[in-house]
Design a protein that fits this description.
Blueprint: H1 2-14, E1 22-28, E2 36-43, H2 49-62, E3 73-79, H3 91-101, E4 109-110, H4 120-133, H5 138-148, H6 153-165, H7 177-187, E5 191-197, E6 204-207, E7 214-221, E8 230-234, H8 237-240, E9 245-247, E10 252-254
Parallel strand pairs: 5-7
Antiparallel strand pairs: 1-2, 1-3, 4-8, 5-6, 7-8, 9-10
Length: 279
């Protein structure tokens, strides 16, 4: 019965949309941790009734109080395809937003300024990659300032090289869902891309399928219709969600290590790594 219900809801959710639209799922119930469980936004081919039913069965197995009762709420949200490009948003709103969220002190973004091209996504990716790798590469650390600065040539050159690696050297215009997947394929298995969206309350709208310790956190800012989008680098995911810590294994922010529930957490030292316990 549940499978038929999920299939009917999904058909209705996509019947008047585009084939490239994404859909997300949120299950709300008092028995769940923080009152809800969220499935990131996925393509229509990936958000199937069988997949939702599998998630539901896992939740029920781990929570005896989760039942089909009047307190249960299942919310489906459909959004148009993520697309980047140049920062065409209202200039005053864009600059005001940047002043509030970007910067060295307290900010959580690294701005990408590309008024003369549509390479904001590959630019953001190479900046995020350099930010991670510079800690282990002294030569890259010396180039970090020039790679981070959109006004200087290294950032654009690296972005163009990444596009060639992904087979997108002939691509024109903003990057959308297909380009995101090709860029992720080119970066696997070393890097995993995660994209948060301003239109979806900062929820994930894309997550690379192969986990990696090197996660490229990207933010998609757009107008309410999903057009005129722009990609930036998320330098501090925990700040984005107003938390003290961030866990990439369960995509959650938290304030207290002892209270964070995660299958990858060591309950001896509370670190998010696999510990070696010695006698």
């Amino acid at each position: 019965v549940l499978l038929d219900t999920f299939e009917a809801v999904l058909r209705r959710a996509f019947e008047d949309g585009e084939s490239t639209d994404l859909i997300g799922l949120q299950i709300n119930h008092p028995s769940l941790t923080k009152g809800s469980f969220i499935m990131p936004f996925r393509a229509q081919s990936e958000m199937t009734a069988d997949r939702i039913l599998t998630v539901w069965e896992m939740l029920v197995q781990s929570n005896e109080d989760l039942k089909l009762d009047s307190e249960l709420e299942v919310v489906f949200t459909r959004i148009s395809q993520t697309r980047g490009g140049r920062p065409h948003l209202n200039k005053w709103k864009h600059e005001s937003w940047m002043k509030q969220h970007c910067g060295k002190r307290g900010g959580c973004f690294i701005n990408i300024s590309n008024p003369h091209d549509d390479l904001c996504l590959p630019r953001a990716l190479v900046v995020a990659m350099a930010r991670i790798d510079k800690e282990e590469d002294p030569e890259l650390a010396q180039l970090w300032s020039s790679i981070r600065d959109s006004r200087r040539s290294p950032q654009k050159q690296l972005a163009q090289r990444l596009m060639r690696q992904a087979g997108l050297q002939d691509h024109e215009g903003p990057c959308g869902e297909q380009e995101i997947r090709k860029l992720q394929a080119a970066l696997e298995p070393t890097y995993q891309i995660k994209i948060f969206s301003s239109r979806c309350c900062n929820f994930l709208t894309f997550e690379g399928k192969i986990p990696s310790e090197k996660v490229l956190h990207i933010y998609h800012q757009s107008d309410e219709n999903g057009k005129n989008g722009h990609f930036l680098v998320v330098s501090k995911p925990h700040v984005l969600f107003n938390r003290a810590y961030w866990c990439d294994r369960c995509n959650r922010g938290f304030n207290t290590k002892r209270e964070h529930r995660c299958v990858s957490k060591c309950y001896s030292c509370f670190d998010l790594v696999e510990c070696r316990i010695e006698d």
